[in-house]
Hints:
By secondary structure, the chain is mainly β. Helix content is 9%, strand content 31%. The chain is built from seven helices and 41 strands. The strands form nine sheets. Strands 1, 3, 4, 6, 9, 10, 11, 12, 13, 14 and 15 form an eleven-stranded mixed beta sheet that branches. Strand 21 and strand 22 form a beta hairpin. The longest helix is centred in the first third of the chain and has 19 residues. The chain is elongated. The protein starts with 28 loop residues before the first strand and ends with a strand.
Amino acid sequence: MSKLKKILSGLLTAAMVAGLMPMTALAAENQTASPAASDDTDTSDTEEYVTGALQMRPEDIGEDQIIHNIEEYNASMGIDSSASGGSLPSKWDNSTNENKKYLPPVSSQGNICSCGPFTVVYYTLSYTLNKARGVSAAESNTCNPNFVYNMLNSGNNTGTFKSDIYNIIKYQGAPCLNEVPLKDNKYEERSLTDWFPGDAWEHATSNRIAGVEYFSPEGFIESNSGAYSLSPVSSTGTPVRDPKSSELDAMKAALKNGELLNFSIYTAYWKTTQIKSAAASNVNPNGYAIDNSFVGEDVVYTQTSGGIDHFMTIVGYNDEIWTDINGNGIADPGEMGAFKTINSWGSWWGNGGYIWIAYDALNPVSAVSGAPVYSSRGCPITEVAHLKLGGKTNASSKIYLSYTLNTKSRSDIRLSVTAKNSSGAVVKKMCVVPYYRYSSGPYVNLGEYSFNGTKNAADGRMTFDLNNIIPNINSSSLKNYKWSVEIEDLKKDNGSLTVKDIRIIDRNANEEYPMYADAGFTLDGDKKTVAISVDGTIPVPEDQVTIYYKGYSTPYIHYRAGTGTWTTAPGFAMTKTSEVSGYTHKYTIDLGTASYAEVCFNDGNGNWDSRNGANYKFDKGTYTFSNGTITPYTPPQPAELSVDLSLSDTNVPSSGNFTISASAKGGTAPYQYQFSYVGSYENTVQTYSSASSVNCSIPQNGKYTVKVIAKDSTGKTVQKT
């Protein structure tokens, strides 16, 4: 009896979002007799499986991402076609040959519509990286699919676009199961909403791809109904007539090259049978090599509708598999050959978690005389793609933008990072993951949750690799650019966004560069741009107006950027400050694309200073304001950073205990200190901390040097011994 079970379709149509609760379940046909006439009867048993795929959009890929034939595949992979060994082997299976050690075990997406991330992230990304790195699959190198899925599902149990998954693992990556475990995948709110903030975001950057390519001789084809398909074979006629058809060569070559291939399928309209034995002599008059090792296993021989509802992975192929499609008991040419695919419905499904798909199923018209005829026929293998790695299997530059935010609605946020060259020209500006998908489009719901997946405001620390902005960035090239971050709260709803920290972290040089702004500022329906200095200089605000104010004791600022919309009266309370002598308050306005701000002031109690109704105009830059007078202000450069070091006792007593103290000045406060002593090796007593003294105990024998490194808020350091 067939091991296929009922399929809970994750989609109402190829363009609609998958739901969790059972709908009318459509099943693959479990055919125990030879197929003959058309029969769409549901004969499967009752266990349900969730899908969750959305149809690809033409704008998701470019022509340069399409592989049309085996020659283009070889060129893409740098394979010399003349030296590639000529004809392809008759069978290849990366789940059983020497490559099987790289493949994670069969797993289940449970009742979550996460088949896309399971296919792309759990199976293919993990396998591809493991093979490139030469390590066997383990929890420590198997990527978590739900990390990616939860950024794409808007907090719902919904289907995903595969192109979105590819982009997440290109720009952010995925952490491994030893850090973010793959739980039971049951439908619970947190299982769909948690973004796993923290170290996982930084570690995910080590598991990324450079891009993706698709196998299709024709590219996107639009049907009469307006739907699109990306077929791996020609979309008309019968391109695959026997197991050696050249239209299959590019996919076979990729599999033989040790790759896995992702694809889309419409499981609700599968027609299946079992692989037959060819022991009798009259079965094989055409003399094909027939592999009887898989007799009785399930094989898909056609799909009775176009569209998709599920994503799966091809692991191998076998030209010697015989599927008796017409039921005549003879191995006809069109009945030979099948792709082996792995699913995400558990090892109890299908052939131990796998299923075969006959080559003939890819044909728009069957090559088999007498094959069953159905009212429609679709290709069960579409949108076939392979992952491409960069020059290094570890894709992280280890130079990151790190940001810590607090909100109860992560969907209200947009955060982008900008790099400008020395002349002030923008080299690149990009929204961070996952907001980059909607940086220029309308408001899109990413889930009305905090970063940890709850409905309560909570901190979330995320990390974004800056080689997405400057390719091949390093500690030296980092300092060739001026860096800034724009953070925006899209809704004014009294649900404030608090910016706890934004900084650039250079793990290679063990340096951190914090934002040039007070931590803990809030936004509510507005935005702010903060600069990050990586060269020790005080950044000059760009696309901003900063005003140091003297006047009302409780001043409010009411403004608009250029000819834009005015703030809601009375505006925003200005922040107390003592940064500039004689001025009591401060406020920074982000101008966006405007070149100036129109401003007036009030005391919050109905008293206004609006220049007699004409208002005040501030161009980009920093100013002081008092009694109607606007004066440009240039912040003084800080004194040179220095640090003094002292010991409680330079002649260490018999106990070996003493205190090291340090005091920094100059630079830009606040300061952090790192203490160590050096003998035959260096022993760090305290890593960077605001504590300016530390108790120390060292061995009595030998000579030791005590060392302190002081670091100011811009990341500049100075050392004294």
